[in-house]
Amino acid sequence: MRSNRDDAEVHPRAGCESNDDGRHSGSIPEYSYSDANKNSGITWDEATFKEYIKDPRAKIPNTKMIFPGIKNEKEAGDLWAYLKQFGPDGNKK
Questions:
Q1: pTM of the predicted protein model
Q2: Which of 1, 39, 57, 89 has the fewest CB atoms within 10 Å, measured from its CB?
Q3: What is the mean pLDDT of residues 68-89?
C-alpha cells in the first residue's frame, strides 16, 4: 500500500495538491489520480480542504487515497498552514 508521502517521492506535488487555492482536484500533470478524484468537481480552498481531510472517502467516494482522516480541527488547521508554505513546484515559498 502506498501513501501520499510515497507518491510525493514520485511526484513532488502529489502530497501538497490541496494547498493550492483555486486548483481543481486531480489536476497535477504526470500524477495518476483516480477517476473519482479527477471528476470530483472540487476546487481547493481552506474550507474544502478541512472538510476533505476529516474523511477523504466521504468527500470523494471511490478515491484511491486510503487515509482515516484528521477529525481534530486544530490539527487540520495546522496541516493547512503547513501545506500553505509550499508553492506549486513543491518548494517552500
A1: 0.72
A2: 1
A3: 88
CATH topology of domain 4-19+31-83: Cytochrome Bc1 Complex; Chain D, domain 2 (1.10.760)
CB atoms near residue 14 (< 10 Å): 19
* C-alpha cell read off for 29: 500533470
Please, what is the Cα angle at 15 between 8 and 28, to 5 degrees?
90
Q: Report d(CA 71, CA 44) in Å as an integer.
A: 18
Long-range contacts of 51-57 (CB under 8 A, 24+ apart): 52/18, 53/18, 53/79
Residues with Cβ within 8 Å of 61's Cβ and at least 6 positions away in sequence, in order, are 36
pLDDT tens digit sequence for 29-77: 778 889 999 999 999 889 999 999 999 999 999 988 888 999 999 999 9
